[in-house]
């Protein structure tokens, strides 16, 4: 059990209230795992500077609920979180989708150490932390979905992940305001769909850019 140095009840209350507002139902186990993940993040952040957000209640909206905004748009099946950082959105999504496997990829060794510790302490058997750069990662399976949150500009993200563009794969990129200039710089053979996101307790604009490849096109 992690050493809780913050108001557990207040964080859980905010998490549950936000999830209800989003139309999501978190059972008792999922709530507990989310709050334990948050406690680990608070504890490690003081030494490893994993996130600029320091206030636990703010982390509920910025990291947990923001991650869960992706949940209704996520296909079942193997998922790769590109540039996972401190495990978001990968760990919250893995908690909610125990029947899907999640590879959490990052080139920052200290952040991957944290993700490995979180996987161990939370008992998340469907999470595989990987220390590697996206463009150098050799996948041992095809993914249904590639996800990214605060990773890089869309054209760069698409180019870096080219080796993972198997037929039928979908890319979900979480953004702030609609990145119109980034979208128009994507290759002509992709389709894009912009979905507004509403994250409770977060005032800033959020959207999801869904990228797919035109049927019949397969990146070499």
TrEMBL record:
It comes from Candidatus Thiodiazotropha endolucinida. Specifically methylates the N7 position of guanine in position 527 of 16S rRNA. HAMAP family: 16SrRNA_methyltr_G (MF_00074). This is Ribosomal RNA small subunit methyltransferase G. One of its GO terms (molecular function) is rRNA (guanine-N7-)-methyltransferase activity. Its EC number is 2.1.1.170. NCBIfam families: rsmG_gidB. S-adenosyl-L-methionine binds at residues 83, 134-135, 149. Its main location: cytoplasm. Keywords: Cytoplasm, Methyltransferase, rRNA processing, S-adenosyl-L-methionine, Transferase.
């Amino acid at each position: 059990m992690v050493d809780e140095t913050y108001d557990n009840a207040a964080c859980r209350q905010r998490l549950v209230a936000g999830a209800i507002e989003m139309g999501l139902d978190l059972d008792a186990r999922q709530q507990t795992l989310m709050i334990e993940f948050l406690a680990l993040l608070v504890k490690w952040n003081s030494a490893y500077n994993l996130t600029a957000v320091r206030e636990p209640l703010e982390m509920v909206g910025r990291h947990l609920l923001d991650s869960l905004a992706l949940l209704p748009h996520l296909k079942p099946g193997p998922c790769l979180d590109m540039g996972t950082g401190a495990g978001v959105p990968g760990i919250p999504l893995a908690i909610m989708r125990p029947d899907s496997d999640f590879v959490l990829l990052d080139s920052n060794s200290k952040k991957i150490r944290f993700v490995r510790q979180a996987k161990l302490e939370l008992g998340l058997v469907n999470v595989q932390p990987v220390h590697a750069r996206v463009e150098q990662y050799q996948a041992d399976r095809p993914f249904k979905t590639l996800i990214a949150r605060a990773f890089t500009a869309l054209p760069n993200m698409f180019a870096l992940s080219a080796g993972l563009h198997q037929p039928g794969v979908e890319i979900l990129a979480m953004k702030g305001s609609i990145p119109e200039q980034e979208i128009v710089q994507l290759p002509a053979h992709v389709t894009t769909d912009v979905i507004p996101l509403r994250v409770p307790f977060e005032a800033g604009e959020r959207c999801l850019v869904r990228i797919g490849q035109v049927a019949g096109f397969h990146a070499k």
